[in-house]
Amino acid sequence: MGPHPAVAAIRLAVRRALHDVLSEQAALREKAGDTTNPPEPPLVLVACSGGADSMALASALAFEAPRLGLRAGGVTVDHGLQPGSADRAREVTERLTALRLKPVESIAVTIGRTNTGPEAAARDARYAALDEAADRCGATAVLLGHTRDDQAETVLLGLARGSGTRSLSGMAEVTGPGDRYRRPFLAIDRQTTRRACLAQSLPVWDDPHNDDPAYTRSRVRHEALPMLEKALGKGVVEALARTARLSRDDADALDSWALQAERSVRTDVPGTDGWDGVELDTVRLFALPSAVRRRVLRRAAIAAGAPAGSLFARHLEEVDRLITAWRGQRPINLPGRVEAGRQGGRLVFRHCSPTPPAPTG
Fold first, then answer.
1. What number is the average pLDDT over the span 68-94?
2. What residue numbers does the annotated binding site cover?
């Protein structure tokens, strides 16, 4: 008799992700010309909070990794946002150790005040901790337990912000430096991971923040999605996840087009004569489709020093009007002290240093 269907589903998803890791490692070794000496088996870590999604992921990694000749470890991040968080992190490490994962690490982080809100601050701190753990342990990959439901929520949040195609594409299966982060469960729903934990008698912890209406994602999960399913019928989550996949394909194609177009419209030579700004030919920019042109503008603004996370659609719309509705407007101020303005037949992005204080006395 085979495993429970939910257990079989999560194991298959993880097996596919691990096969990809092995294939990529073999390709890297072949490219480096190292095909004789057998290397140490790659280490794959699972990021685990103790919830059903990540515990199911940890159990599947513990089962599949040894069968593929991989080492499997785990890491949990203590955000310190709730009473008893350190005790809970210790419980998670004990559960990961019981699954025979090694090494197992617990990392405590401090969440500071930011302009982006507590959710984004916690996410940034978590990824920084995971990067640190992966570098220290020499891990080839880190598995994340995001599910199809998480993907649907991400698409809805992007839609509510009025974001473009890239935001609507949600989370990619592979991201991070060196393709470090893998999300095997993006095609698996949250109920399947919980059933897998029940079938294996795995204890799970339900984060109260996931039910707290103070958090935007929690409201989407418990109010917006159920309301949409009530109004539109079942299948909303699957449809949103499918939208993410289709949007990602479109965004990838447009990004590739924009990269080629940038080479034809850029009039400065990057990295020469101490110039760290960007100059673009306005006539050639005007001839580009708007979806491609705005991607070129975004790339130029980031190259000039604008933080990618602070650059929104409204910024790019204002800069785009310097091309499509030029009436002698003043330069546009962008995040990161970057300025975009017309100079003759060029659109110039430059970083503006803060004005020094006037001398006193």
1. 91
2. 49-54
Q: Are 5-244 and 266-351 in the same CATH fold?
A: no
| Domain 266-351 = CATH 3.30.465.60 | yes
**Tens digit of each residue's pLDDT (9 = 90 or more) over 171-189:** 999 999 999 999 999 999 9
Cα Rg for the chain, rounded, in angstroms?
A: 24
Distance CA 355, CA 350 (A): 15
- Residue spans of the domains in the chain: they are 5-244, 266-351
* HSE of 114, CA atoms in CB hemisphere, 13 A: 15
Tell me how far the alpha carbon of residue 174 is from its chain's centroid.
9
Annotated binding site for ATP: 49-54
Q: What is the pLDDT of residues 297-318, one digit of tens each?
A: 999 999 999 998 788 888 999 9
What percent of the chain lies above the pLDDT cut of 90?
70
Q: Give the dihedral of Cα atoms 316, 322, 326, 331; nearest 10 deg.
A: 120
- Which strand ranges, in their side-by-side order, compose the sheet holding 338-343? 278-281, 346-351, 338-343, 332-334
CATH of 5-244, one of 3.90.950.10, 3.40.50.720, 3.40.50.620, 3.30.980.10: 3.40.50.620
